[in-house]
Every structure is written in C-alpha cells, then in structure tokens.
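hey so i finally got around to running the thing on that chain from the lab meeting. sorry it took forever, my laptop kept dying and i had to restart like 3 times. anyway pasting the input first so we r on the same page abt which one it is
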Amino acid sequence: MNDFTKKVIFVMFGGTIQGLGMGLFLFPQSIPSGGAGGLAILLNYFLKVPMGPALWIANFSLLLFGVKNLGKRFALWTIFGMTIAAFSIAFFESQINIPNRNLLYDLVFGSVFLGIGVGILMRQGVSNGGGGVLAYMVAHKKNILPGKPLFYFNCSIFLITAASISWKIIFLAFISQWISTRIVDFIYDIRFYETYTIDWRKKT
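ok and heres what got predicted. didnt touch it at all, straight out
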C-alpha cells in the first residue's frame, strides 16, 4: 500500500469518526463542536438545513478564505476530510437512533470521538476546516500561536449560538472543547503508526 492510499484511508477514517461524534452525540443535543459546528447549528435552527450539509457549507465557506494562504493541496485534502465528515454526520443522524438520551453521556462520548477524528486528520496534515483555517491565517500573519485566535473565533460563534438557541449551550460547548482538544493532542503526539504528511504550511 503506497503512502497516498494510506493517507486517503486515514483521512476517511478520521472524518468518519469525527462525524460519528458530532452526528450521533453532540448535534442531537445542539452542542457545537467548534466555530463551524456552531454555524451549522444556526443554519439548521434558522434555515432547517440538515446538519451534515450545514457543516459542510460552514466549513467550505471558511476554507475559501484560506486557500490563497495555505495552498491548494492543503485545501483539497481539507475539503475531502470535511466531505467525509458531512456524509458521516448525515448517516449517523438519519440511520441510528439512541432512545432515552443522556446529556452527560452524549457530551463525553461525542467529545471523545470528535477529538479522535480531528486528531487523526491532523496527524495527516489535514485541517478539519472551520475556525482552524482562520486561526492559522491569523497566526501566520501576526506570527503568533493559533490557539488564541481559534479560542476567540469559537467563543464568538458560541455566544451567537447561545443567544439564538439556549445559553446552556455555551457551557456545554466549553466542556466539549476542553475534552476534545486534549484528545486531539493525545492522538497527535502518540506514536502508534507511521503517517504520511504534507507540508501544509507551504503554498503549492
């Protein structure tokens, strides 16, 4: 199996696990998975756009701003991962029903699966889209770490989502971010398989 095929498989797997966490656990509880997730919930709430397509629309719209700075190859891989995640969300939302839902279980399991999926994508040099693209652009331009702009972007979307739907959402979103980002770091750093990565910081 060549490196390109391995990368395709890992990106598909990461996008599917990300979609599982969001579509089966977080989105049914209206918990944003990040800035793009918050925008997707707003699109679903106001325009009745299904969550899978809504997330893809939100991610793709944000990615358009980053193509010039991050390169076409990075953008194409990110679009591929986003599309897999969107289809996975649509599948898990429509095909699997969990009776007698528990908010705490959905929050924890959804955040863990989200973190695993995003961590796998990032090991492949692929962004999960959304605020990550904008955060990198700001960090690259200002020569700062991406955590702060990502935090501010996600918080802004969380506040808008909370004001539109429910203020408890912002509390749940922060908990979800805390869990998922730690899982992302763990998956990103652990050495349990060889990965093929591209230099996504370099314009192509």
